[in-house]
Design a protein that fits this description.
The protein is α/β, with parallel strands linked by helices. The chain is built from eleven helices and eight strands. One of its GO terms (biological process) is carbohydrate metabolic process.
Length: 260
């Protein structure tokens, strides 16, 4: 009897840990904490989408991405890594000067970020927040995207205390793992619709794909705007999470979630 109880307890512990790991490794899941994966209905009605670029700024690529966005009169959101911001503050200031949003993507983009405790999470996020505020002369990010999209169970509480909101994505192109721009574009554009949040990266493949993606958006009469433009007048953003996140998990691409 005792052996049966012990096995049951062990099985329960293992099961709970497996479930927790699955939630941590599900970037679009909303069960751990609030997680924005689509824009609100007001943006859908205006035919708006959000292009987001992770992992910058890049000393060569970022300016070229900005030029492409300018050519198409498009605005975007850049989720920047704090230590890169500290190394290239002028680039970050230029992103903001051209009318785009600069948001928080952690300070070091560490794979172990999702397995950190609340103090370590807060220290990293605050350090990145300060780097961005310094580079932009006081413009503080309102949004955060976890490295690789992997979220610690503690992250929601930390972000709430810091006044930040987590943003995931509707669809992504996997431009860090694919070498084929056609494949990346196909993943981003399949069933593309107003209200989508698209994930690209501040890298060479993202730059190659961007002009064609912007042309496609124009053809579909979709307008790319920054998160700051969409949520500028909205106070209670957590309420928006409840109304815009339609599924607990899953990605609107054919591939499984992979690190970004």
């Amino acid at each position: 009897m005792l052996e049966t109880i012990t096995l049951y307890i062990l099985a329960s512990i293992i099961f709970s840990q497996v479930v927790l790991a699955m939630l941590v490794l599900c970037p679009r899941c909303k069960l751990i904490s609030p997680n924005l994966v689509r824009l609100p209905q007001t943006a859908v009605a205006r035919r708006e989408i959000a292009l987001t670029f992770d992992d910058g700024p890049h000393e060569e690529i970022t300016t070229q991405i900005l030029d492409q966005l300018d050519l198409h009169n498009a605005k975007a959101t850049f989720f920047c890594i704090g230590e890169k911001v500290a190394a290239h503050p002028d680039l970050v200031a230029e992103i903001l000067r051209r009318g785009h949003s600069v948001e928080n993507h952690s300070y070091r983009h560490n794979m172990l970020f999702a397995f950190s405790g609340p103090t370590a999470l807060a220290n990293d996020i605050v350090k990145a927040q300060k780097a961005i505020e310094d580079a932009t002369h006081g413009t503080a990010p309102r949004f955060f995207r976890a490295p690789f999209g992997f979220r610690s169970p503690f992250l929601g509480g930390v972000l709430r205390r810091l006044g930040l909101h987590h943003v995931a994505w509707t669809r992504r192109g996997y431009d860090t793992t694919s070498r084929n721009p056609d494949t990346v574009l196909r993943r981003l554009s399949r069933n593309l619709a107003a209200g989508d949040i698209l994930l690209l990266h501040d890298n060479k493949l993202g730059l190659v794909v961007l002009p064609r993606l912007l042309e496609l958006c124009s053809h579909k009469e979709l307008r790319s705007v920054s998160l700051a433009m969409i949520f500028n007048d909205i106070k209670a953003l957590p309420q928006i999470y409840k109304h815009t996140v339609t599924g607990a998990c899953g990605d609107h691409t054919s591939s499984t979630n992979a690190p970004s």
